[in-house]
Each structure stands twice: as C-alpha cells, then as structure tokens.
Amino acid sequence: MKTSNRFLYALFLSMPALAFAAGGHEGHGMSASAPAMHAEPAEHAAAGMAGDPAKVTRTIPVEMNDGMRFTPDQVTVKAGETVRFFIVNKGKLPHEMVIGTAGELKEHAEKMRKMPGMVHQDANQMKLAPGQRGAIVWTFTKAGTVNYACLVPGHMEAGMVGSVLVQ
What is the pTM of this model? Predict the structure, then answer.
C-alpha cells in the first residue's frame, strides 16, 4: 500500500474517534470539558418542539439589542402552530434567543454563568454576533406561557426576556 493511501486509510478509520473526542456525540458544539445542556427530549418539552420548516404558518421578526431587550417581548401563537422567529442582533454585543419554560431558562442561565463559553446548537436556541441574523423554527404544542431569554451571563437578569402566550 502506498504511503499516501495508508495515511488516508488511517485518517478514515480515526474519524469516528475524532468526532467523539470533539464532543460531536453530545449534539452540541461545546468543548469536551463543557457540560452539555440536556433538557427533556424535544418531543416531550413543555415549551414545544423543533418545527418543520415546511409547516411554518408565519414568520415573527425579533430584534435583540444592547438595551437588553427583545422587540417584541410578547408574542401570541396558537397551540400546534409552527412559527419561524427571524432574529436580528441589532447590538454591538453577542446575544442569544433561547426558548423554554421559565424553570428551564433559569437553570440554563445558571449553567451559563459557570460555563460562559458554552456554545448552543439546539433547535430552541440561536446565538448571534453583532449584526448577524438567524432563525428558529418552533412548534408550540400546548396552551400556556412559554418564555424566551438571552442567557449570555447578566443579560436575562438585566431584563432580556420575552414571553409567548400559546392559546
């Protein structure tokens, strides 16, 4: 076997181990030393679940700013509705939008204070650099109140929260 072929073969065989070591097994883009945020499986989450982009019934624009506010900070949807939140960071600081119950958000905010470099790649979360845009597609499965917040340390505490009334 040629040396170049041996190298490619060895690289191919090592790929699963490299993915595992990089934290890819957690479903998050965190370093191996950072704890993963494990909420309930999306289909059982009290806040709803990841939505199918083909089933989006409307798009809701959301702006984040350095005044530690979301605009709008209140939204009303129907139970079973799938919406796309089109999110824009209008500030000069990084911000994020995380959808969850008040308890989930509070618990995760505490983890963020301990691990401020935590990176999110779950369907209910979007972290954006200044000027960046992104989207969350979410299905609200049952009536009640669901919240969203920026969990960058200090931002939620400064008032960067919003609510979704699910009717």
Answer: 0.71
